[in-house]
Amino acid sequence: MLPSATWSRAGSRGGRCHSGFPAWARVYAFFRRWREHGLIAEFHDRLRGAAREREGREAEPTAGITDAQSVRAAATVPAASRRGKKVPGRKRRIVTDTPGLLVAVAVTAANIGDRDAAAGLLMRLRRLHRDSTLVWADGGWTGSLVGWCRDKLALTLKIVKCTDDMAGFVVLPRRWVAERTFAWLMNSRRLARDYETLPATSEAMIRWSMVTG
């Protein structure tokens, strides 16, 4: 069943699977069951911990980088247009560890602002990964969110943004790590557009792509 789910992750057309695999509906039923029971998240997190330990790190990260990505949604997906843009879609927000492995993910409608959605993402991060106490973010996460993270979550939110003396293309410290993770994810054809009706399924597909990609 695992190879069949990987085939689904690749974005086979028309709900079809390879002739040697079970029917698409059965494959998706297993995937949904794994998602609902938290098995995909557990499988992903165990592999991430093992990869970190192979590099001589602790299994649980203590610091991370967060970023967001807007993606067009399929016509069948409930979505909203981002302010100033007419393209209907969703927004993916992730937290990675310092090497770029996925730690937390949240998918929302595209018109939900970063600061509004950040609270839920960072609360999820602190609930599931208590050792994570430092997160680097871009300038869109400034304002009261920094103090809220400090007071409510015991989390240091460090803002990395361009300064007036920067000209042309500049690689900003830390932020490029999460941007590279998004580039890895976009190698999955299933993630080139959001096809999932439920945000939870979209989040599970992102984790699955980190495992199989």
UniProtKB/TrEMBL annotation:
Protein name in UniProt: IS5 family transposase
InterPro entries the record matches: Transposase_11 (IPR002559)
GO molecular function annotations of the record: DNA binding; transposase activity
Top-level taxon: Bacteria
Organism of derivation: Streptomyces telluris
Domain Transposase IS4-like span(s) in chain numbering: 60-209
GO biological processes: DNA transposition
